[in-house]
From TrEMBL:
Bilayer-crossing regions: none
GO biological process: DNA damage response
Stored PANTHER family: PERIPLASMIC IMMUNOGENIC PROTEIN (PTHR34387:SF1), SLR1258 PROTEIN (PTHR34387)
Domain of life where this protein originates: Bacteria
Record organism: Flavobacterium laiguense
Annotated Pfam families: SIMPL
InterPro entries: 26kDa_periplasmic_antigen, SIMPL/DUF541
Protein name (Swiss-Prot/TrEMBL): SIMPL domain-containing protein
Length: 230
């Protein structure tokens, strides 16, 4: 009998609590912030690739070519922290028709160019000194963190403006933000292939010319916000 009384008391407590708990009136909106900026630096991935039938000779030739490339990079007065070896490989390739093994040696260097005025000279020099593959050129901003913060603030302002527009028709006001969710995607600058193509053909024309169109990069932030209604 005591167990039955206890069970009834528990059920009564749950029902009473459920009746007393009220859903908070709120509005859910999203906001997007965009900041367009002109890039001030470039990330370049350049590779020296060498082929041959003798692994030692192929590796030696590849090292020699990369040595001249590094000398060029140093002559551009880049900071030591702005260039580094990214990948090194020596791989055999077997030709089943000729029944012979050849070798491919590659070394890839990553360069951060902080002075875009040196872009054409650097790209032309890389090709002249032995680089035979430009894997990627990406234009970036050195103030990315600042611009991402600006984009987030713009996203929040848009979300608040949306909420105010909706509730103003009902004669209500928005209160405190109950939930804020950052739904922004990671920022990955896009490579500029037109610039790479121009640089690879630079050795065909010794005249000074401009081969890149930097344009603008767009930094986007997205946010979802739940505001309490008053």
């Amino acid at each position: 009998m005591k167990k039955v009384v206890v069970l009834i008391a528990c059920l009564f407590t749950v029902l009473t609590y459920g009746q007393e708990t009220k859903q908070i009136p709120q509005i859910n909106v999203s906001g997007e912030g965009k900041v367009k900026v002109t890039p001030d630096q470039a990330l370049i991935l350049a590779t020296v690739e060498t082929k041959g039938n003798n692994s030692k000779e192929v590796k030696k030739l590849n090292d020699q070519q990369m040595e001249t490339v590094l000398k060029l990079v140093k002559s551009m007065n880049l900071a030591p922290a702005d260039y580094k070896t990214k990948r090194v490989s020596l791989m055999p390739q077997y030709d089943y028709e000729k029944k012979k093994t050849s070798y491919i040696a590659t070394q890839t260097i990553e360069i951060i160019l902080r002075d875009l005025a040196k872009y054409d000279a650097l790209m032309e020099g890389l090709v002249d000194q032995g680089v035979n593959r430009i894997d990627n050129v990406t234009f970036q901003s050195s103030k990315l963190a600042q611009y991402q913060s600006d984009a987030r603030k713009l996203a929040m302002k848009e979300a608040k403006m949306k909420a105010e527009d909706y509730v103003s028709v009902l004669g209500q006001k928005i209160g405190l933000a109950v939930v804020i969710t950052d739904s922004s995607q990671n920022y990955y600058p896009q490579p500029v292939y037109a610039a790479m193509k121009g640089a690879m053909s630079a050795q065909e024309d010794a005249a000074t010319r401009e081969t890149m169109a930097v344009g603008e990069i767009e930094i986007v932030a997205n946010v979802a916000v739940s505001f309490k209604l008053e």
